[in-house]
């Protein structure tokens, strides 16, 4: 008797780092960032539909390892991600990640993918989506403080979606700024390396803070933030890890992803529990006005939420369909008779 053919559900499409890189170049990075911005925005519009929970974090002295699950009722996703600012000194990255999509109906996975690159892309696309609603109209210049792994992605997303033309860069390590300038030299952005954070913010309408330090740092102090600015604060995303002086928070309008998570992890962990915030999804779906006028100071207190990873995963699933940018991996055991898992084990006996 011949064994039944393996179920097609046994083989899960796997997108390796190599294939993710090929996919991004095949589509074009600015197009990926623009499309991802729209996919994330679509999912923010249907926000109430999703399961939502603050991410499950395992903290250590060195860093954090987090699991980020969500579901829209049809598809389930999770991301594994770490944050270890000390890694860089050993030649390792601060943030690495991988993730999975599964169908809710059977619980079977439908995509497994690298997410270190994808996290940088989705974080940048989320910044662009927020800035589209919050940045002053006609913004031309962004200050980029912290020129590490995320920096180029943030710059290109804001360029692709908002059309900025000038980038002013600062990092405490000048070699990080040199690296970012080298990587963005063909981007069409006018690039200026600055000696201090204070000089980087001069003339900028958007300030992105994207530093990594496991402490309450003061990357921006109150005197550095004038009227009409949008602050895109990426790096404060863990308990005890913030970038803005609390005086800034007292005079800005703050927009967040999921308040129960942001109050633990974001800049607003420095503020009382009743500090007023607006949920970004309500701005996206038109319930609440984002920017009221050109003088308002807005803050996107970004920490990264599971729904953004869900959007990124479903985008990749769509984009690799019918291409060579994935490999089928036999991730799921597939006994001929579903109750005969032990019998299946015997297939591999010598
Ligand atoms: N909000 C989100 O969704 C999200 C997603 C991914 C990463 N992050 C966070 O973004 C931050 C940046 O991530 P990364 O992968 O680019 O890290 P990275 O370690 O590659 O780069 C961080 C850079 O910040 C610089 N820096 C540190 N302190 C500074 C200071 N006081 N002033 C100026 N520059 C300073 C470092 O020299 C380094 O070049 C991290 O804190 C990370 O946890 C947030």
From TrEMBL:
<dbReference type="InterPro" id="IPR003462">
    <property type="entry name" value="ODC_Mu_crystall"/>
</dbReference>
<dbReference type="Pfam" id="PF02423">
    <property type="entry name" value="OCD_Mu_crystall"/>
</dbReference>
<protein>
    <submittedName>
        <fullName>Ornithine cyclodeaminase</fullName>
        <ecNumber>4.3.1.12</ecNumber>
    </submittedName>
</protein>
<dbReference type="InterPro" id="IPR036291">
    <property type="entry name" value="NAD(P)-bd_dom_sf"/>
</dbReference>
<comment type="similarity">
    <text>Belongs to the ornithine cyclodeaminase/mu-crystallin family.</text>
</comment>
<dbReference type="GO" id="GO:0008473">
    <property type="term" value="F:ornithine cyclodeaminase activity"/>
</dbReference>
<keyword id="KW-0520">NAD</keyword>
<keyword id="KW-0456">Lyase</keyword>
<dbReference type="InterPro" id="IPR023401">
    <property type="entry name" value="ODC_N"/>
</dbReference>
């Amino acid at each position: 008797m011949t064994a039944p053919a393996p179920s097609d559900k046994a083989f899960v499409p796997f997108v390796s780092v190599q294939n993710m890189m090929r996919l991004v170049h095949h589509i074009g990075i600015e197009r990926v960032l623009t499309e991802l911005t729209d996919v994330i925005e679509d999912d923010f519009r249907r926000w109430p539909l999703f399961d939502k929970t603050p991410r499950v974090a395992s903290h250590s002295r060195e860093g954090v390892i987090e699991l980020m699950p969500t579901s829209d009722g049809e598809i389930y996703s999770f991301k594994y991600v770490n944050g270890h600012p000390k890694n860089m000194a050993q030649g390792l990255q601060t943030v690495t990640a991988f993730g999975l999509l599964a169908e809710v109906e059977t619980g079977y996975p439908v995509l497994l993918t690298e997410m270190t690159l994808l996290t940088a892309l989705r974080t940048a696309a989320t910044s662009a989506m927020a800035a589209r609603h919050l940045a002053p109209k006609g913004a031309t210049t962004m200050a980029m403080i912290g020129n590490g792994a995320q920096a180029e992605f943030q710059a290109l997303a804001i360029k692709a979606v908002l059309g900025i033309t000038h980038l002013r860069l600062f990092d405490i390590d000048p070699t990080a700024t040199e690296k970012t300038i080298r990587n963005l030299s063909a981007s069409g952005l006018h690039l200026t390396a600055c000696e201090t954070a204070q000089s980087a913010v001069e003339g900028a309408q958007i300030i992105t803070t994207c530093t990594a330090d496991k402490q309450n740092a003061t990357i921006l102090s109150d005197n550095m933030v004038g009227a009409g600015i949008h602050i895109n604060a990426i790096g404060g995303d863990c308990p005890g890890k913030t970038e803005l002086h609390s005086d800034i928070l007292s005079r800005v309008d703050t927009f967040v992803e999921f308040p129960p998570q942001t109050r633990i992890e974001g800049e607003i962990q420095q503020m009382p529990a009743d500090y007023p915030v607006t949920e970004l999804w309500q701005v996206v779906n038109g319930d609440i006005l984002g920017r009221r006028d050109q003088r308002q100071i807005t803050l996107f207190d970004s920490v990264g939420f599971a729904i953004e990873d869900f959007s990124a995963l479903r985008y990749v699933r769509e984009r690799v369909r019918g291409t060579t940018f994935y490999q089928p991996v036999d991730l799921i055991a597939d006994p001929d008779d579903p109750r005969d898992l032990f019998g299946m084990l015997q297939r591999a006996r010598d």
